[in-house]
């Protein structure tokens, strides 16, 4: 357990300071390639909805088993060689499961692009981190999309993986990342993936159900420490009222806290693949959104991640 504790802490620190290592050696890249190959093999648009769902379930099972088994094997071999080597490998995989610094870096690219170069580069930068159509966004739309992404991914990219890593180490952490990656690749509700990606999308909702709510609570607590510009009282009010204002049972949990904390109105109608989707608003339009709200949302995200890490470390020590 002391090895796991050490690696868990080291992995978090590595992510916080180094950020996501881009390139072919990242496990999510390999998981993505596996999903793509299986999709090419299994997805047939001429299949009936029932057959599509069965093949989609097969893809989910294969991806989870393969990614988890390979991770467990790598850890077993590493610890068999040497305990120090095992800790290092576990720390590296832990680091690769987290996205605190990466989320900060990518969102701040939007901030600097918008501040220094204007709306055109701002749209290009935000297109790298959101799924909506960005060509139609004005300055307010670009900033709002970025803040929403930070809020939502505080759970998906930071808190949820931390929780699963704390419970089951990198094997469970990679299992979570595999589910999350499947949802992002085939979990769309369109003509192609509606049936084939149904199990991937539902499973992602399930594994994020508790972490999303824990993330929201931790974000609420963070407002008490972040000082001016963050309202814990309003965050709680909006959270209670708007936490289900989303098609996903999880996404609005953290978005509602962020909207309330910053006294903003997020979400609302947005364009996806050329079609306008009528989404409910989250939060009240107390003040206009501004560029510095990207910085504020990132402060909340980083503080929340540190709080979660601390709580997880304490719980692991108590269990030891």
List keywords for this structure.
mainly alpha; 320 residues; two-stranded antiparallel sheet; 11 helices; two-stranded antiparallel ribbon
Describe the structure.
The chain is mostly helical and 320 residues long. It has one domain (2-319). The chain is 73% helix and 3% strand. It is built from eleven helices and four strands, in the order H-H-H-H-H-H-H-H-H-H-E-E-E-E-H. The protein has helices at residues 2-18, 27-42, 49-81, 83-97, 100-117, 119-126, 139-186, 198-226, 232-242, 251-261, 292-319; strands at 266-267, 270-272, 275-277, 281-282. It has a two-stranded antiparallel sheet. Strand 2 (270-272) and strand 3 (275-277) form a beta hairpin. Helix 8 (198-226) packs parallel to helix 10. The longest helix is centred in the middle third of the chain and has 48 residues, at 139-186. The radius of gyration is 20 Å and the shape is globular. The N and C termini lie close together (6 Å). The model has no long low-confidence stretch (mean pLDDT 92).
In short:
The chain is mostly helical and about 325 residues long. The protein has eleven helices and four strands. The model has no long low-confidence stretch (mean pLDDT about 90).
